[in-house]
Write a structure and sequence with these properties.
homotetramer, five-stranded antiparallel beta sheet, alpha+beta, 29% helix
C-alpha cells in the first residue's frame, strides 16, 4: 500500500502529471518547532534542473503544509504537505501511451490494474519521491532534537568507484560525490552517458551517526531489515548492503567480527547493527541504483495489445538517477530512524515509569 | 515486532534454549489440504547435524500443529505450529553469560532491553528460523495450488564463486551448491574455515517461477522492497540484490534495460520485477551472508559491566551459515509470495465481481 | 492514529480552522468509474446550514480529487480528496483559547499533547467528518457494483422515540427522521433545545442490505467489532448496538435466537451478524449520540493553568449532532463494508484459483 | 485476523476441541516480574464449573509459558502461553455436525470458509477467551507497576437490574453481581433459565481507575473506539456503552456536560473519555450480552445442504454468558489500556528527550 513506518507513518499520494504530490505524516510528537526553511532545503537538494548532470526539467517544489502545525509547532495531529505539480509536458507522452517503455513499470502496472496513467509514469514516477523528501524534512526536526545526524553521498557512478566517504565534500559536489579525487571521472561518465543518449547506474552511501543504542524491533522490524525495505523501495534501487555488505560473504569470521574495547567497537564491519538493533557505532547503508530506464535509443518492446513495436523516447531525464536518489535514500533513512525512535520507547518498563511515574 | 506479512501474517515466538519455538500463521485460505510430510521435508532440509559441513548439533525438529486444521484441511483459522526444543547444552553458555560475543546480538539486546537470555543467543538465535521454515512448509501448499515454484541454492562460499545456477544440482548437494564444478572448492573452503576454528561467508540465490504477473503493492509494499526486507531480516544477511543487482549500478541503461518481443522479456536484468510489481519473468534474489560470528579464536570484547575481557567460545556451530540460510531464504520467499497473492486479490474491480457477482 | 481500515485504508488530516480537510483512500480496486456528482451528493447531505434544525454555519464543501483517478476511473493508486476550509470565524474562539469547554476534547488534547489548536476544536472538531463522508462517496461506488445498499436515519431525538425504521422517509426528512409520525415531536425537541440555548442527544440507525454472506474476519476483525469501533469513534457517540442490542441482554435465549427455514432467518435479533460474520440478513446498527457539548449557558470549568473559570460560549452549533451524525455513521458503515469485501477475498483457496487459475 | 492491539499485540490461536488454546503477546516491555500465581488467578476467575450458575463442564486451565521470560522477568521478546484442552466430549457434537445451531456462528463460518470445525463451535467457541484472559494476566503486571486498577462486575441479569456498582461485592459474588441487594433475584433468574432448559442475557460493567490522562490516539484509535471494538468482539456482546451511554442520547446538553472545578470533573457522564482521550476520571464501560445461544429446546433450523431440520442440543453450557463474560471484558480492558500506555509514549517530544536525552 502507500504508507510506510509503524509509529511514525507516512502516506503519500499523487502522480507525475496529476494535480500534485503530497504526504500525510502521522505519529509525529507534539511540540516540535517546524522549520520551513529546513524543509525547503531538503526539497532543493532533490530538485531537478540544477546543473548539466541532472535533467533539465524544472520543478518549482513550492510546498504547503495543510495541517498539523499550530503557531509554528507540531500538535500531534497528522501533518499533511502538498506540492502542486508544474512544468507539465504531458504531450511528450502521447506517443508512448499504449506501449511499455523498457525498464519502466508500464507493463507491470498494466498487468496489475488493467489501467495506467501513462503520463510521465503516473504513480510509478520518481517524481513521487518529493513527498518522501518533504516528510523527511519534517522528521529530521525530531532527529535534530536528539543530535542524530544522517548524511548521504554518491560513492560510484557506473564503474567509477570513489575510494573514500567524505560526506562534507558530497555536500558541495554537483553530483554529491563522496570522493573529490574520483568526482571528475564520475562527472565524465555521466556526460558520456548523456551525450550518447544513454544513462548510467550509480551507488549511494548513507551514514547515520549518534543514533541511540537499542533501535530496531527484532525479529521482524529489525533496523537493517527495515532499512533494506525502504531503500529497495526507492525507484531504481537493485541492491542494498549494510556495513561490509556483499564483501562480508567473501571473508572469514575472524576478519569480519568487530571486536570491542573500552572505546567501543574497534572495527565496524557490521555497519552499526547487530541482531537488527543499533549498537551505537556508525550505521552504514549502501544502495545500488540501476541506470535511468529512459534512454533515447530505439528499443524493441510490446504495446498493450501484444504487438511488437519500437520505443523511441523523447523528453528530459536524469542520466544517472543515483545522484538525486542519494537525497531520497537519505530521506528514507531519516524516516526509518524516526520511526524506530518511537517504536523503541516501550522497550523497558523503566521507560514507562519515567513517563507515567 | 515478531510478525511479518500483511494478508498472510506469521507471528513467531521462542528462544534457542527455552521450551520451544513456534509460529502462528494467520490469513491462510480455507480448504488447503495440509501435507504433513511436506512440512517435515522443509524442516529436514534446514535441520542441522546432517553432514560435516554443518554443525554437529542435533535437533529432532518434531513439529506439532496445534490449531487451524480440521480433518486434514485448513479452516481459515490461525494455524499454530510448535517445535519443542531438544539437545540443550545450556551449560555451554555459562561462561559467556556476562560478556558480549563479537558479531552477535549480545551487546545490542542488552542495550535495548537491559536483560537478555544468554543461552544460545536466546531470541536472536538462528534456531528461531525453524518457525519460518515450518510456516513456509504450510504456505507452500498455497503456491503449489497455483503452480508457483520457489527454489534456492548457494552460489558462492567465501571467495569461491560458482558460475551457474543449477537448482536441480543444489537439491542433491550437501552444501546446496548451485554449481557442480565449484562445489568441491566450496566444500574445501568450508572445511578450511572449520579446521582453523573459523567460519566463512557465502551467498544464496532464490528463484521464483510462474508467479502471476501483478504481484506487489506499490509504492510501499513493492515486491522487491518486501523481499529485501525479509531477506535482510534473516540472521547474518548483510546484502540483498534483485536481478542484476549491484552490477546494474555499473552499466549503461542500454545494457541494463530488458527489451521485449512476443515471447516476453528478451533479457531479465530486472529479476522479474518492474516498479515493484512482478512482470511474469523469473524472480531472482541474491542474499549475502556474513560468516558465522561464533568462532573459536580468542577475541577481545567487553562484558556487560564495561570491562575488557577475552571471549573464548565453546560449543557447536555451522562454519558457514549461508548453507542452511538458503533454506530460510527460500522460506521467506515463499511466505512473501503467498502474502502478495492475497494482497493482490483486490487490485481490480473485476476480481470482486468474479468472487461476489 | 489517523487511518482506519485494513485493505481499504483511509487516512484523514486537517483541522477545523486550518487550511482544509482531506483524506487519502488507499487500496481501492482499479477501474471503478468515479462519479463526482455522487460524491457531491454525500457531502451535501452532511453539509451544515441547510435548515433551522442545523447550525447556521455555512460550508461550501467544494472538493477536489488530487490523485488516483485517470480518465474518469480509479487506477489502484491512492485517491486523495481535499476540501479547503471556508467561513472561518476564528475570532469566535479567542475567548476560549485557554479554557477547557465542558464536554469537549479541549482538556484531554492539552493533557496529551501539551499544545492544542483551540480554533473550533482543531483536529477534534466534527468538521473532520467531511473527509470520512467524501471517502464514503468514493467507496460507495464499489458497493454499488455489488448491489449492496447502506441506509441511515434518526430513530430518536432526546426522549422522543420513533416506532419504525422508514429509510425512504428519512431521505426526505429535514432531520432524517425514520418515522414520519414522530418527526414533528422530534423537530420540536430540537427547537426546544435550540431556543433554550441548549442541545439534545439522539439515536441513529444504519441498515445494510445485500452484503454478501461471509464478511468479517474473526476473531479480531469481526464485522460487529469493527462496526462498533468505527461508530464509537464518531464525535459524540456514546453507545453502539447490533441487532436487538441492549435489549438482547434482558431476554431469554428462546426469544433471542433466530430460527431458520428455507427462506432464511425467520427473525433477525442478531442484526445480520453471527460470530462476527455476516449471515446474509439485514445488518442493523444503532448509534447513540450525546447532546452537542457546545451550549450557551454559563458553565463552570478550568483553564489550562488550573484556575476555576466560567465558560460562556458564542458561535454557531448544531443543537442535535445526531442529525448530521447519521450521515457520518452511514459513511463509516460504507467504508467498513468495503474494507471487509476486500479482506474476505482470500477466505477460500477456491477464490485464488478463480483469480489466478 | 487473529491479533489485536498495536503496540502491545496479542495473537490467539486454537479451537474448542483441538489440541489447545494459546496466545502470543508481543510488545511487552522488558523487565516485568512475571507473577504466575496472578495469571492463574485470572484463569481461575474465568474457569467454568465452579458453581450451579455456570456450566458443569470442567477445564483444568493449566497454562504453560513457552517463551519470553528469563529468570522470572520479561525479556522484551514475545511471550507465548499455551493451555492444553481437556474434558473433551466431542461425541456430544456428532449430531449437530451438519446443521446450523440457532444463534451460533455455524452458518456463517460455513458460508465464509466452506468448511468448519463443528466440535464445540471450533474457533468460534467462547473457550478461546481463555487466551485473552491469560494475556491480560500478563499485561496486568504492567498496569500494576503504574497503579492502574481495572475492575468488573455484573450489573443486570435478564430484566433484573442492580442499582449500584459495588466492585468489592462483585469479587465475592458467585455471579460477580455488583449489587448485593439484587443478587438474589439475579441468581433466581439464572436458575429459572437453567431449569427451563433456556438461557438469559446480562450486562457487565468495567471500571478503570488511575489511568493516566492522555491515553487514546485520535482520530482512529480513540480510547472509546478501541474499547467498543474489543468489547463488541467478545462472544455474545451486542451492545457497548461509554459513561452515560445510551441515556446520553435522551438528555439535554446542560444535563450531560461534565463541569469542572479544582477537584476535577464534578460529574462523569463522559465515562472518563473526551475526544477519545482519557481525562483522568474513572473510565466506565458497559457491555450487554445476549443469552447463551445453546439452549435445550427444539429449534427450527437448516442443515448445510439447505434442508429444514430440528436442532435439539445436548451438552453443558452456561445459562448466562455475561457472568464469565465479565472476566473476559475485564481482560480486554486491561489489554487495551496496556496498548494505549505504549502508544502514548511518543505523544510529546519531551518524552523522547526524557528517554534518549
Amino acid at each position: 500500500m502507500n504508507s510506510f513506518g509503524k509509529a511514525l507513518r507516512v502516506t503519500t499520494f499523487g502522480e507525475s502529471h496529476g494535480a500534485g504530490i503530497g504526504c500525510v505524516i502521522d505519529g509525529l510528537p507534539a511540540n516540535l518547532k517546524v522549520d520551513y526553511a529546513k524543509i525547503k532545503e531538503w526539497l532543493d537538494r532533490r530538485k531537478p534542473g540544477q546543473n548539466k548532470y541532472s535533467t533539465s526539467r524544472k520543478e518549482k517544489e513550492e510546498f504547503e503544509i495543510l495541517s498539523g502545525v499550530f503557531e509554528g509547532f507540531t500538535t500531534g495531529t497528522p501533518l499533511a504537505i502538498y506540492i502542486a505539480n508544474s512544468d507539465h509536458k504531458s504531450s511528450d507522452y502521447g506517443s508512448i501511451k499504449d506501449l511499455f517503455r523498457p525498464g519502466h513499470a508500464d507493463a507491470t502496472y498494466f498487468y496489475k490494474y488493467g489501467i495506467r496513467d501513462y503520463r510521465g509514469g503516473g504513480r510509478s514516477s520518481a517524481r513521487e519521491s518529493v513527498a518522501r523528501v518533504a516528510a523527511a524534512g519534517v522528521a529530521s526536526l525530531m532527529l535534530e532534537e536528539l543530535n542524530i545526524v544522517v548524511k548521504s553521498g554518491v560513492s560510484s557512478v557506473g564503474n567509477v568507484d570513489g575510494k573514500k566517504y567524505d560526506f562534507n565534500h558530497a555536500k558541495t559536489s554537483e553530483i554529491f560525490s563522496l570522493d573529490k579525487s574520483a568526482e571528475g571521472a564520475q562527472k565524465d561518465k555521466i556526460l558520456e552517458a548523456k551525450n550518447s543518449h544513454d544513462s548510467v547506474g550509480g551507488t549511494v552511501v548513507i551514514s547515520i551517526l549518534n543514533a541511540p543504542k537499542g533501535l530496531g524491533e527484532p525479529l521482524y522490524d529489525k533496523l537493517d531489515s527495515r532499512l533494506a525495505e525502504v531503500m529497495m523501495g526507492i525507484n531504481g534501487a537493485k541492491g542494498v548492503e549494510i556495513g561490509l555488505g556483499v564483501n562480508s560473504s567473501k571473508v572469514f569470521g575472524s576478519k569480519n567480527n568487530d571486536l570491542m574495547d573500552k572505546s567501543g567497537f574497534i572495527t565496524n564491519n557490521a555497519g552499526g547493527i547487530l541482531g537488527g538493533i543499533s549498537s551505537g557505532a556508525e550505521i552504514l547503508v549502501k544502495v545500488h541504483f540501476k541506470p535511468t530506464p529512459s534512454i533515447f535509443h530505439e528499443q524493441k518492446t510490446l504495446d498493450k495489445y501484444g504487438n511488437e513495436v519500437v520505443c523511441k523516447l523523447k523528453g528530459r531525464h536524469d542520466p544517472c538517477i543515483a545522484i538525486r536518489g542519494s537525497v531520497v535514500a537519505e530521506a528514507m533513512a531519516v524516516l526509518t530512524i524516526a520511526d524506530m525512535l518511537l517504536l523503541n520507547l516501550g522497550s523497558k518498563v523503566e521507560h514507562l515509569k519515567k513517563i507515567y511515574g
